[in-house]
Amino acid sequence: MEARYEVLRRATEEVAAVDAHAHNLVEHGSAFPFLRCFSEAEGDALALAPHSLSFKRSLRDIAALYNCEASLEKVEKFRSAEGLKSIGSKCFQAANISVILIDDGIAFDKMLDLESHKAFAPVVGRVLRIERLAETIINAVMFSTDGYAFPETYYLGAKRARDVVYRVLSAACEDGDLSIQEAIEAIEDIFRRNALNLYKLNVVNGSINHETAIVGKRVSLSSVEEDVLFVRIIWCDASGQHRCRVVPAGRFYEITRNKGVGLTFAAMGMTSFCDGPADGSNLTGVGEIRLVPDMPTLVRLPWSRHEEMVMADMQIRPGEGWEYCPRNTLRKVTKVLLDEFNVTMKAGFENEFFLRRKLVSNGVEMWIPYDNTNYCSTSAFDGASSILQEVYSSLKDSGIVVEQLHAEAGKGQFEIALKYILCTVAADKLIYARETIKSIARKHGLVATFLPKPDLDDFGSGSHVHLSLWENDQNVFMGSSKDNFHGMSKTGEQFLAGVYHHLPSILAFTAPHPNSYDRIQPDTWSGAYLCWGKENREAPLRTACPPGVPLDLVSNFEIKSFDGCANPHLGLAAIVAAGIDGLRRHLKLPEPIESNPSDHSSKLKRLPQNLQESVESLSADKVLHELIGDKLVTTAIAIRKAEINHFAKNPGALKDLIDRY
């Protein structure tokens, strides 16, 4: 049943919750005992708490969050060393709580004031005491952690609630009492909408317009109601271009959210240079699918507050995914990975892009770099700081977690790295991140482009992706201290060996444009030779050991040959398919390359040096044809061949792509 309701589990985990009733946190050093995190007992009875099953379970969950030994002593030692701000951030981020409504009528020793809680959640408000709320009849279920004193109580409350709601609603779906879409709506109601409606809160993408306010049953936190006018229904085609259909909000919420909009078959056969299907794609203007909004992905546009956007599924008939749908394809192959090996894949993308100014001189259009600085330049970041601040805030409002950002080596080039998350979600969020970056740059009179090599004399841009394998909450890509191959588990090695074996074919999805191969060159940190290495940034496959992981182990691997022309769902689907083949056939990796692969050029095979070579590899790759789908692979190949022919004849057409990618 678990695999069938993966979308339901994702909705339960991803919804940014409104905690409708909680209490104040306390400072470190409060006389309020930490054992009360696990039990409401007092006095002598509290000493018995460590013997209870609930204590052991909760302690285990907290220790896993902190990556420490599951003992009360070790957890308390970690808390003391990290401090309240650090552990609070960990707990609230893991709990995915966007709004806290605090009942501060209960006093604790060294209790934090309301303002201090803003360090842990985007929105904090004071709720009227429950006695006052009882004056109004409430007929809706609302989520609350009933957290108090310690951040861990919020984390545990949210974790338990999400688990229970998922199990109850998935059982209701299994019994036929609810459809999956109805269950997803119930999740939104329980965790968000019911509380927002009760308190008349105006929320935009998980954040209320005013950060802190006194809220009661008739108090609004917004002085101006921002009505939604348009909803953008987003998809990414097989050439990697983002496209949308726009529906007025009234019609969207009345009809389109359930029935979708029509779209021609030809839309998935289009190239980067022509809005018509490529020859040999087997797609024409005859036939229509439905673009059906995936409502859990709906967000308000931070840069255009009267609009929302939502990812779409392509359905051939109600409830039946179209075999050319990229999102459905990724879900399909990840289901195989889960069903056969009980493993899921998480992904975290690094977004490299150029900021350009458009200059027209004597009728000639030119793209001028935003600056001429170098890698990690402080002056580059300072010059673009106002733009990057707006990008960061908008990504945060959209539920996208940024881990770091910096200036890159190219002229006017920057990188924004996103937190790893379940790969099906990561692909959606990458599309939203690109939309956000391009739109905000446009507001500032600039163009942001993710084109791999807009200037052949400058550095290139990639969308490097870090990947890890998980079984439940355990990273199973990483080996153990006793059993590992260069820091990887047996599962990790076999999966990566599959990716290694199929990498030339994978490139037709992850580096899908002729311009992609202008970037993939030796000695440019882009990975030009077929090899892998531990912390080797010249290798196309790099195993990584981030802070907190023992030095002899690795937690993830990076694919360098992934760029901004790729449809992220198709790119990840190809990677998962290759990994499945590695697991099925128990493939093994060669020894890693520990220096510049160029120094071993006589022994190493070059990866495809142009798109034609990667297309030839894909054409012969039976595994990717089978797992991704022969029809979709055939269409992708047709599009790639059309791109090859067009740009060979029209090299100057490259500048037209700066706006498109």
UniProtKB/TrEMBL annotation:
Annotated GS catalytic domain residues: 326-661
Coiled-coil residues: none
Pfam families (alphabetical): Gln-synt_C (PF00120)
Keywords from the named record: Ligase
GO molecular function: glutamine synthetase activity
One GO term of the biological process aspect: glutamine biosynthetic process
Family of the protein in this entry: Belongs to the glutamine synthetase family.
Protein name from the UniProt record: Glutamate-ammonia ligase
Organism placement in taxonomy: Eukaryota, Viridiplantae, Streptophyta, Embryophyta, Tracheophyta
